[in-house]
Amino acid sequence: MRKCVLVSGGAGFIGSHVTVELIEAGYDVIVADNMSNCDLTCFEGVKKITGKDDIPFFKIDFTDPVAAELLFSTNEIDAVIHFAAFKAVGESVNEPLKYYKNNLSSFMNVIESARAHGCDNILFSSSATVYGEPEELPVTEDTPRQPATSPYGNTKTMCEDILRDCVKAYPEIKGIALRYFNPIGAHPSALIGELPRGVPNNLVPFITQTAIGKRECLSVFGDDYPTPDGTCLRDFIDVVDLAKAHVFAVRRMLEGKMKKDYEIYNIGTGTPLSVMELIKGFEKANNLKLNYKIAPRRTGDISALWADPTLANRELGWKAERKTEDTLAAAWAWEKHLAGK
Ligand code: UD1
User: Fold this and answer.
1) What pLDDT is stored for residue 21 in this prediction?
2) Which ligand 1 atom is the nearest neighbour of the CA of 204?
3) How many CB atoms neighbour CB 86 within 10 A?
């Protein structure tokens, strides 16, 4: 029988790419989203890419326990992938309660309703932010987590702990936390991608918006870091590669192949790239010149962070495959698609 996966936050950037990959892998998918940080652009794109016009969609806010309960009581759901969360680091510093209330309560409501209705497989979308500024690079899953530098980061750490504790207390529950490094790019169809509201905080949307003329100039935050070219090093992971990791993880859960009841995986490429290398790569991949300037460091940025993805490669049988130039070409194609070009 076909298995059904609920994707909470499924109309957003990563959720929409995961929905596509799940459908293409033969799963039934239910998408739920409160639409607080997106519109229907990506969901419509998902329908076009998959050729499926009847993907169930629910506009639900999981901070409402009644709504969560209703969704699980009226649908047969085998696994949940939980994305529904706020994600702006800076905003979380100014509005911590907004982040704690939303990100923690929605996850707890999802786990509670899932459990009540026999859905035992919970996959949580975590972040490499839990590693803070690590003492050794690359980071493995055993690298100690550092105290979070923002309420957003802290919600990721806390949700991981909530899942770990639930798995421990409720023997039927299985949990996987995927720690994403820096997801970038867009689907090669250019029908789904990142849709930041207002001024983008993340690097690649700022680059593409500068290239299209929506922003005047990209600021490179600091060129005096202790790295080869002085700009920060990150593990930029293509969003389609990242989405595929979810399919491998869900399959592992649903096929009873987990070795522990709670597993954690780094989802990254294992190859660091500097901010400047990424900018140059974008220019080359798309044959254009970007207007950028060196600006002061951004508060809270760490100099370098990249993954050791060996565990995910070995246990999930997953590996990042897309070439950076293709990723950056897809990001640009998506920006042009948005501009109607
Ligand atoms: C942040 C979050 C991370 C989250 C990720 C989503 C923290 C500390 N970081 O990572 O949890 O998963 O976003 O992708 O919680 N940069 C510029 N100019 C810009 C924008 C960024 O130079 O206009 C630089 C930054 O200084 C940084 C790099 O680009 O060195 C990447 O920045 P960004 O895309 O915001 O991601 P992170 O801060 O690494």
Assistant:
1) 98
2) 34
3) 19
Under 8 Å between Cβ of 245 and 316: yes
- Euclidean distance between CA atoms 341 and 335, whole angstroms: 9
| Nearest CA among 123, 8, 124, 12 for reference residue 75 | 8
Give the distance (Å) from ligand 1 centre to CA of residue 34: 25
User: How far apart, in whole angstroms, are the C-alpha atoms of residue 325 and residue 172?
Assistant: 43
* Cα Rg, the chain, nearest whole Å: 19
Tens of pLDDT, residues 123-181:
999 999 999 999 999 999 999 999 998 999 999 999 999 999 999 999 999 999 999 99
The full DSSP string for 259-317 is SSSEEEEEES-S--EEHHHHHHHHHHHHT----EEEEPPPTT--SEE-B--HHIIIII-
The pLDDT, as a whole number, for residue 275 is 98
Q: What is the pLDDT of residue 33?
A: 98
Average pLDDT, the chain: 97
Q: Which residues contact 248 (CB under 8 A, 6 or more apart)?
A: 316, 317, 318
Answer whether 42's CB lies under 8 Å from 13's CB. Answer: yes
Give residue 223 CA to ligand 1 midpoint distance, Å.
15
Read off the pLDDT of residues 175-210 as tens digits, 9 standing for 90 and up.
999 999 999 999 999 999 999 989 999 999 999 999
Model's pTM, two decimal places? 0.98
Question: For residue 335, which phi and psi values (nearest 5 degrees)?
Answer: -60, -40
Q: CA-to-CA distance for 9 and 125, rounded, in angstroms?
A: 10
List pocket residues of ligand 1, CB cut-off 6 Å. Answer: 89, 127, 129, 149-150, 152-153, 180, 182-183, 201-203, 206, 218-221, 232, 234, 275, 298, 300-301
Under a CB-based contact definition with an 8 Å cutoff, are residues 262 and 173 in contact? no
